[in-house]
Write a structure and sequence with these properties.
The structure holds two protein chains of two kinds.
Chain A (H helix, E strand, L loop, with lengths): L8 H11 L5 H10 L4 H7 L19 E5 L15 H6 L7 E3 L5 E3 L2 E6 L5 E6 L13 H12 L7 H4 L9 E5 L2 E5 L7 H4 L27 E7 L3 E6 L18 E5 L5 H9 L5 E2 L7 H7 L5 E16 L9 H9 L3 H9 L3 E3 L22 H10 L6 E8 L3 H14 L4 E8 L1 H6 L6 E6 L5 H8 L19 H11 L4 H18 L2 E2 L2 E10 L2 E2 L15 E2 L3
Parallel strand pairs in A: 1-10, 1-11, 14-15
Antiparallel strand pairs in A: 2-3, 4-5, 5-7, 6-7, 8-9, 9-10, 12-16, 12-17, 12-18, 13-18, 19-20
Helix pairs in contact in A: 1-2, 8-9, 10-12, 11-13, 16-17
Chain B lengths: L1 H28 L4 H6 L5 H10 L6 H10 L2 H8 L2 E6 L5 E6 L5 E7 L2 E7 L5 E5 L5 E2 L5 E6 L4 E7 L5 E5 L3 E5 L1 E8 L19 H36 L4 H15 L2 H15 L22 H28 L1 H8 L4 H13 L1 H17 L1 H7 L4 H11 L2 H29 L7
Classes of the chains: A alpha+beta, B alpha+beta.
């Protein structure tokens, strides 16, 4: 544990906030680990027992093969991943610098720890020593340098370029010793540790990596890549010299191998297979999973663990196109969402109600607000004021393969009719929806989970320096006061202060924003009951280092 | 007969040629974007352009068809000025190299402004050496070089022409470069030389996947075929002989029932009954290394589904044909001659009655190969039909073409077999 004196000054403040009740335990854990306090220390300070399960008491069974149904996609450069699926296989072979767990707490992984300067512009990453790649090369600062430069290389074309490249230049990465890297950021950023766990951010071996990971699968992870046949199978096997120790004082992992089988996109066959025990789990990270949940929820041999996420089906209105330019019309449509009904009918009640601002209750900066109630009378009045006494016809674009989106649209159509909205649902294949998701005037867009409240707000509700809405601002809604407050929030680490700002941000978005969010979706980790120690991650990442299989 | 078969063979080639053009045109004109299908909806325009260029999809359609049919290596050889060779490494990766002086194999890469040659000697030693002497100059300024990169493309590298880009070179850090790859030709031997190319979706050579898939489908279809045909013919003959009797009514009605229920419904009912409820056999196919032999029990339900669908259909055709023949005058004559019943049936009736079913059966081999796609999807069976479906959904043209060609071959081939069988059943039919 680190010395009290070397702690980031914020930790003391956070601790004080925790003690005076200004901060919940969850928030304390989140923020103190963000500025570099180790998770164990944070848990200790928060007066909680470390969540590491007391496995020694249980009898861990080593060995066995886990069978996973998962798409086996084409892979060359891990930084180029555009789907989560390939990271599910390769995260068993290579590893990340950090690790954001199921509670959105980020912990060191290949890092020993990290420290942030007070202005949050300098980040010191201390690398774990004695970690070896599976080709026996030692893991050093050069690997981190090499990998980060791959992210920032335009020719590689990584999605991390837009994320990390926004605040980090290649010249800002400094190797200070063999096991220390210092990042000098262009601007303050608190999500650095989160970004280091973004799924394409696997650490590569700088000595051997040549652009195709499958040809030289050299990672630091607990398994080695034995076979990778795109569209068919992938097999990883346990390595003997992995750096992490299990609860039984022998090196991890517990399982001998993991086999990934590509069974295609059709879920029926996968459901049958897991029922019959032919596979142990289904990778639902890029799929929806509602049909799987529905089919398996009553099966005694299968564990279903939900995770609450900030995934949303966003009812988005183009604030620059008529009639949505008028806030009264936007507000009227928001009033027509019968949230409880939508959640129950569209998503089997498997989630929590949303409040028309893009922050969910598990985000640390979430500020509690009252939910807007379904009220067609008020909506009708607003429409009358806006000049539509006889109601109006609108087209609602939805992707037909998202079944919950379609059901949400149908419920909305029915419930908005009394207010005067005559909604014409225009379904189209998902691919077609993605062709024009930023262009349609009214539509329902799926947004993925992000661990911090600021992340989506920055992506979807801001303008660039010239005042033009940013690329993913699908509603073209730009609000001066909102942008100013958001900028302020981006540079504020103190949770109380941040939440104060978020209270205002949420109010603005509720009052005059361009979106309706009726519910936040759960996701599910589905495993056979013989699979032990699985956690359900909001991204459904398969973190299987400490997973073990019961003896059959 | 030989002449007939040869004529059919040329007809097959012509059909394949026309179908391949049709598939190319249909895939070309259908909506959707292969880069977005493969990489997801959120790729940047640059990523999309780079994907299309590296796959050679930025070239005009006639050129892509020509490359697909006859290969691109001969064209690339002219550009590079060296002969090209495809080798298979010990780990099973296919690699293209240029053959340099002394039998050395060569590839190139750019590091900053420098061109580096990767050399592989005949005794498999590898080393790198600078190769800046290979640059050629454009008359209008700037220089270029055609070579082979490490990802099986012929590439035209340029420098000194366009804007400056920064490349990260391990050991030297970030280096300014005034160029980079400007044009790609993905290397392949072409369909007529036995190389259908690389799947755009999976990046795997199509030939490596498709024959496994074909084998899986053949196993499934073959077993179903072997079970269905004798049973269906036998029961059909039986029903046709006793037209209107109780067994006939039972067979006809149950046969019709199963053939009108769509196969996805039959499949799912069977899964529900035999897998979920009775827990007798697995309801999905999950194959390991030795697919599909290692788990015969997984084949039971798919085969049963196919059997039920096929059985009713062929049974009814055979029955109708048999009943008709039994009413004809020559059979009556045979009976009146006093021939034994079974002799009349087998020697005189069956041969004529089988002509119609054989046509249907042979047409159904095609249906079995292509139509089992639904059965394959329901059971997650890794067969050719599912492969074709996925390829079509992703607009994976190389895989789609190869699959289609196999289907054409099966279609024309089974028709040929049917024609030959006719001559044995009915000696009046002659091909000349």
């Amino acid at each position: 544990m680190r010395q009290e004196g070397k702690l980031h000054p914020l930790v003391k403040e956070l601790k004080l906030d925790l003690e005076t009740g200004k901060l919940s335990r969850r928030e304390f854990l989140r923020y103190s680990t963000l500025v570099g306090l180790s998770a164990t220390a944070a848990f200790g300070m928060a007066g909680l027992a470390s969540p590491r399960k007391l496995l020694a008491a249980q009898i861990i069974h080593r060995g066995g093969t886990l069978k996973v149904s998962s798409p086996i996609q084409k892979v060359t450069h891990p930084a180029q991943f555009s789907w989560v699926a390939p990271s599910q296989q390769l995260r068993q072979v290579a590893e990340y610098l950090t690790w954001t767990d199921s509670n959105n707490i980020t912990r060191p992984y290949l890092l020993e720890n990290w420290e942030a300067s007070e202005d949050l512009k300098t980040w010191t990453l201390n690398l774990r020593q004695g970690v070896k790649f599976n080709n026996r090369d030692e893991f050093t600062a050069d690997d981190v340098l090499f990998t980060m430069n791959q992210w920032l290389d335009k020719d590689v074309g990584s999605s991390l370029l837009g994320m990390v490249g926004d605040y980090l230049d290649p010249t800002g990465i400094e190797k200070t010793s063999n096991h220390q890297v210092v990042l000098h950021l262009k601007r303050a950023e608190i999500a650095v540790p989160e970004h280091l766990f973004h799924y394409p951010a696997l650490i590569l071996n700088h000595r051997t990596f040549e652009g195709d990971f499958i040809k030289r699968p050299h990672g630091t992870g607990p398994y080695t890549l034995e076979m990778y046949r795109e569209g068919e199978r992938c097999v990883v096997k346990r390595r003997e010299d992995y750096w992490q120790m299990g609860a039984d004082q022998n090196p991890l992992p517990y399982m001998d191998s993991i086999e990934f089988i590509d069974m295609g996109a059709e879920m029926a066959a996968q459901i049958s297979a897991i029922r019959a025990g032919e596979i142990d789990t289904i990778d639902l990270s890029d799929a929806g999973g509602t049909d799987v949940y529905q089919a398996l929820k009553d099966d005694p041999d299968i564990n279903i663990q939900p995770a609450t996420t900030s995934q949303a089906r966003v009812l988005r209105m183009r604030a620059d196109l008529k009639p949505w330019t008028d806030n009264r019309v936007r507000k009227a449509l928001k009033l027509c969402q019968h949230r409880e009904k939508i959640l129950a009918l569209a998503y089997f009640g498997q989630g929590i109600q949303g409040q028309d601002f893009h922050v969910y209750p598990k985000h640390p900066e979430y500020c509690k607000k009252d939910t807007l109630q379904y009220d067609t009378e008020k909506a009708k009045e607003l429409l009358k004021e806006a000049g539509y006494p006889d109601g109006l016809d609108v087209n609602l674009a939805v992707g037909s393969e998202w079944t919950d989106v379609v059901r949400f649209a149908e419920v909305l159509k029915q419930d908005a009719a009394p207010a005067g909205f005559r909604i014409n649902i225009r379904t189209m294949p998902n691919s077609q929806y993605w062709e024009k998701w930023t262009e349609v005037d009214l539509g329902i867009t799926p947004w993925t989970h992000r661990p911090l409240g600021t992340m989506v707000l920055n992506l979807a509700f801001t303008a660039d320096d010239t005042g033009k809405p940013v690329a993913w601002n699908e509603t073209r809604w730009v609000d001066e006061e909102f942008s100013k407050l958001l900028n302020q929030a981006n540079g504020t680490l103190d949770v109380d202060e941040r939440r104060k700002i978020f209270c205002k941000l949420e109010d603005i978005q509720m009052e005059r924003g361009s979106i309706g969010i009726p519910y936040w979706r759960n996701v599910w980790m589905v495993t056979r009951s013989r699979v032990e120690n699985v956690e359900s991650h909001p991204n459904l990442y398969m973190l299987f280092n400490t997973v073990w299989l019961k003896k059959s | 007969m030989a002449k007939f078969i040869i004529r059919r063979f040329f007809l097959l080639l012509l059909t394949m040629f026309l179908v391949s053009i049709a598939v190319f045109l249909i895939a070309e004109s259908s909506p959707g974007n292969v880069a977005r299908n493969v990489l997801g909806s959120f790729i940047t325009p640059e990523q999309e352009a780079s994907f299309l260029a590296q796959m050679g999809l930025d070239k005009p359609i006639w050129q892509r068809y020509l490359y697909w049919l006859t290969g691109s290596d001969w064209h690339a050889e002219k550009k590079v000025g060296l002969s090209l060779k495809r080798i298979t490494t010990r780990k099973g990766f296919e690699e293209w190299w240029a053959v340099g002086e002394g039998g050395n194999l060569l590839r190139w890469k750019m590091e900053g402004e420098d061109l580096i040659a990767l050399v592989k000697t005949p005794d498999l030693e590898t080393f790198e050496r600078p190769a800046n002497d290979r640059w050629q100059t454009y008359p209008e300024g700037g220089s270029y070089f055609w070579g082979i990169d490490t990802a099986n493309h012929a590439v035209r590298w340029e420098k000194g022409s366009g804007e400056t880009v920064w490349n990260f070179v391990m050991g030297s850090g970030w280096m300014a470069a005034t160029g980079g790859p400007a044009e790609y030709i993905p290397l392949k031997k072409g369909f007529v030389r036995g190389d259908p190319g690389v799947s755009l979706r999976t990046g795997r050579p199509v030939s490596k996947s498709i024959f496994v898939r074909l084998r899986n489908s053949l196993v499934l279809a073959g077993i179903a075929f072997a079970i269905v045909m004798p049973i269906a013919l036998f029961l059909g003959i039986l029903a046709g002989l006793k037209e209107g009797s109780l067994p006939d009514r039972f067979l006809s009605i149950s046969g019709m029932m199963f053939s009108v229920i769509p196969e996805f419904a039959t499949g799912i009912f069977l899964i529900l009954i035999f897998s979920h409820w009775l827990d007798l056999v697995p309801g999905a196919t999950v194959f390991g290394e030795k697919a599909p032999w290692e788990r015969i029990d997984m084949l039971i339900l798919p085969v049963l589904t196919l059997t039920l669908i096929e059985l009713g259909y062929i049974l009814r055709i055979t029955r109708a044909s048999m009943a008709e023949v039994m009413r004809s005058s020559y059979i009556r004559t045979a009976f009146l001659k006093g021939l034994p019943y079974w002799r009349v049936v087998f020697r005189h009736a069956v041969r004529n009655a089988l002509i119609a079913p054989i046509t249907v059966i042979m047409l159904h081999v095609n249906w079995l190969m292509g139509g089992i796609v639904i059965v394959e999807v329901v059971f997650g069976y890794p067969g050719l039909g599912k492969y074709l479906l996925d390829s079509a959904l992703y607009k994976d043209i190389n895989a789609l073409e190869a699959g289609t060609m196999i289907m054409v071959m099966v279609a024309v081939g089974t028709q040929l077999i049917a024609d030959v069988i006719y001559t044995f059943l009915n000696p009046r039919i002659r091909y000349g």
